[in-house]
């Protein structure tokens, strides 16, 4: 543009800010930290998704094992029904006992059909969540024998590296730098200016001249805008610190509950194994006693149901043991 003091010349002016209270540095630090926070949140979301898929997987596997137990129950009930038919023919059992056995068999068959339908629904949901069909069996790798647990404090201390904790800490740091950025507005702004003078078009490159200078500007009145921005940032930092404390407390409670459940389920598994064997032996003994007239048909049916129920308890306890171990590993951010 034409220069006022030299109308025949053209000048080009440049401005370089050299100090603004470190505002640019704080803004860059804030942005980088907030980006890191989002990256950690994505990792935390991945762990939550992994836990949910694990829950769906073990729920599907549990239903599959229940079906196996129901199939065994139906097979034993049919054997029982056939035995009573023979006994009715030779007059050793009553028709009412046979009808009772048939009713029990039909009920078990209905339960089996309903369980198969539920299994198909769970299986479809699991495959949809994963995006492909998988095999259930190979994923079950944890049992009381190969379950290795550290002390509870070991797992609690590792929570400081959980992605949700790191995400919140990064967010706090970013908000603190954002606050510093607003506080830098209290400082004056110093700019370095330079002007390049050139002659008119016919002598554009002839006799160039430079001059340099410093400009200092300071906002004397902004209606309290800077103070309001700093106060708002301070509130955000305080709120984020409280959220961080809540996250840490929630994670610690989850770890302690999961750890306690693991210890209990691990101890129960050994006891349940003995209970299942005892109930199986008791059922076989009662069948023999029924054959010689020592017990009633109702006692045989009761013993059979108790045996199958103990099998279900064994599977449920085993699944709960493995699922909670998966939860513990996901809380630690470990690979499954």
Question: Could you describe the 3D structure shown?
Answer:
The protein has a three-stranded antiparallel β-sheet, with no helix packed on it. The relative contact order is 0.15. It has 336 residues and is mainly α. It is built from six helices and three strands, in the order βααααββαα. Helix content is 70%, strand content 9%.
User: Topology as H/E string?
Assistant: EHHHHEEHH
| Secondary-structure content class | mainly alpha
The largest sheet is:
3 strands, antiparallel
Biggest sheet strand line-up: 1-2-3
Shape label: rod-shaped
Q: Look at the structure and give the mean pLDDT.
A: 84
Q: What's the total count of β strands?
A: 3
Helix content: 55-70%
Q: Terminal Cα separation, in Å?
A: 68 Å
Low-confidence stretches: none
Strand content: 5-15%
Number of discrete helical segments: 6
Radius of gyration: 38 Å
Question: What is shown here, in short?
Answer:
The protein is mostly helical and 336 residues long. It has helices spanning 23-89, 95-130, 152-158, 163-183, 225-291, 297-332, and strands at residues 10-19, 189-198, 209-217.
Keywords:
336 residues; mainly alpha; three-stranded antiparallel sheet; 3 strands; 70% helix
